[in-house]
Design brief:
2 copies of one chain form a homodimer. Chain A is α+β, with helices and mostly antiparallel strands. Chain A has one domain: Cyclophilin. Chain A is built from 5 helices and 18 strands. An 8-stranded antiparallel β-barrel of chain A has the order 3-4-15-13-14-6-5-16. In chain A, strands 7-12-11-10-9 form a 5-stranded antiparallel β-sheet. In chain A, a hairpin with a 3-residue loop joins β5 and β6. The longest helix of chain A has 12 residues. The interface between A and B is large, with 50 and 50 residues.
Chain lengths: ~300, ~300
């Protein structure tokens, strides 16, 4: 089930159907996830989580967004910067400055583009080269999703959706995934400005912007924010922005649930993907017979 | 440019690159749309628009959603029902009852599942057969999008994204597209309960639920609503719902802008699709080289 991809393996898998499992036809993807044995779930280390607390909403309700940072071999230059920015408490007091419908919610220093007013960045941030948007050959593929519209191989590696072509592998822009805002190339961004995808997967950003994580809880605190009415969804006035009270690493926050993801090497996950592609429960008449890599979100759960 | 698809044409197009146009490499998709000559824009008849006015928001701001109904040959049984429901003013006073993150915002009669309390439907609604989810062979394809993840041909017909396989053609579930809520098959829904997609394209619904239109203005009035905290995003209490004041046909509403879509038979549209697949402006380092049918939204504009 765990394939190390090579040109040969990829071309074979791209023409093979999504892995079929012997599961009762009426089961839904959620049924399969609910029935997964405990050993199929993998704990996410709290030290790999960002806990972003926004200012409470108008009714005084707390708004927390939990982001899992992407593991090696991807985007580690930016992930390292983000850890330094959290350690320096740099994110505390910045704001969600842009919400563009069917695209992204973005947060950063509202004065970041004005050198005289910009919040000074901590020392020691890495300037990450463009070559880090993708890594080389040899990333293990737990499960391959064939027939990608973007002309690449796609699949899942250690819980993360990936694409691969021409000896390179990179993470994909799916719903809820978090990337690094930047200006035009060769600037690659520091990680001080981040965004989460809140619409259809903008896969054209793959290999052009760094994916550094994904929202695993509280995405609605970003996706349901009022859309900005300025250019590309920026808020026109400071009052429209949502303030960020703090961003902390998960291991700094007391009372955080334990988060787990469904191992993408497990039979449960393979059966889940098959059911996402081939729904046969009572609601469905025509199983799709395929699925795209961003339409098989890796199941994640919170455990008390 | 306008191909009538056949098994032969489809198989040829599926292996061909997205149509390339001779456009300056730095142009963005928006540049191409902005430069499209007036003749490339087609007027949408006001009689094919639904104008849905939600109750104003907490600040008293009006919330209008404009939906274009899908033209023949698709879903005309349900579209006919919807016209009758509007004529009977049946939708007036119902509510948005469900908002599920990364999936749908749905509106209908909150008491629709309780026969004793349900709002009576007008006479004359058609019971639409499942065979209407797809139509037969012979729908003209203005532009083909190759390499679909769902193992079908995909393309654009007269301004609408479609998929086709095995002699059948159907509209696709993309962001902002509106479908007919229903219970388990063989119920196909009347059109009294509708939803709009507010997340990544749920293409598994294609051929299983009827697409009847798309939101062409005001999607943020649905996509930014608070998410329901009940099962599959239903609101738990009536207070959480958003009331629908009225739904009218566009030709019944004074002061509505004229809406136009970019002809999908035009050279401008072909160039736009090519740029969606192959961004070469300053921000982009690696053009994707492909695109999926739901990531090339048909450009629509309001004209005074």
């Amino acid at each position: 089930m765990r394939n190390f991809f090579s040109a040969f393996v990829v071309s074979a898998l791209l023409t093979a159907p999504v892995l079929a499992e012997d599961t009762p036809s009426q089961r839904t993807p959620n049924d399969i996830v609910a029935a997964a044995p405990p050993g199929d779930w993998k704990r996410i280390a709290p030290s790999d989580l960002l806990v972003m607390d926004l200012a409470p909403d108008a009714a005084g309700k707390a708004r927390r967004v939990v982001i899992q940072l992407i593991p090696a071999p991807f985007s580690q230059g930016w992930v390292g910067n983000i850890r330094k920015l959290v350690a320096a408490r740099w994110y505390d007091g910045i704001a969600v400055v842009r919400v563009q419908d069917n695209y992204v919610a973005q947060w950063g220093d509202p004065e970041g583009e004005t050198p005289a007013k910009a919040k000074p960045l901590p020392k020691g941030l890495t300037v990450v080269p463009e070559s880090e948007y993708a890594v080389g050959h040899g990333v293990p593929v737990d499960l391959t999703i064939p027939n990608d519209s973007y002309r690449t191989g796609t699949g899942i590696h250690a819980g993360w959706p990936i694409a691969f072509a021409e000896g390179k592998t990179w993470p994909t822009h799916c719903y809820g995934y978090v990337g690094v805002g930047r200006n035009n190339s060769p600037d690659t961004g520091t990680g001080a400005e981040l965004y989460a995808v809140i619409g259809h997967a903008p896969r054209q950003l793959d290999r052009n912007v760094a994916i550094v994580g994904r929202v695993i809880a509280g995405i609605e605190n970003l996706s349901a924010l009022p859309r900005g009415t300025g250019d590309i969804g920026f808020y026109k006035t400071p009052e429209e922005r949502t303030s960020i009270r703090s961003i902390r690493m998960g291991n700094e926050v007391t009372g955080l649930p334990t988060y787990e993801y469904l191992s993408t090497e497990s039979r449960s996950f393979a059966a889940y993907v098959d059911k996402r592609a081939n729904r046969q429960d009572d609601f469905y008449i025509h199983p799709a017979g395929g699925v795209d890599v961003c339409n098989v979100p890796v199941p994640i759960r919170a455990v008390k």
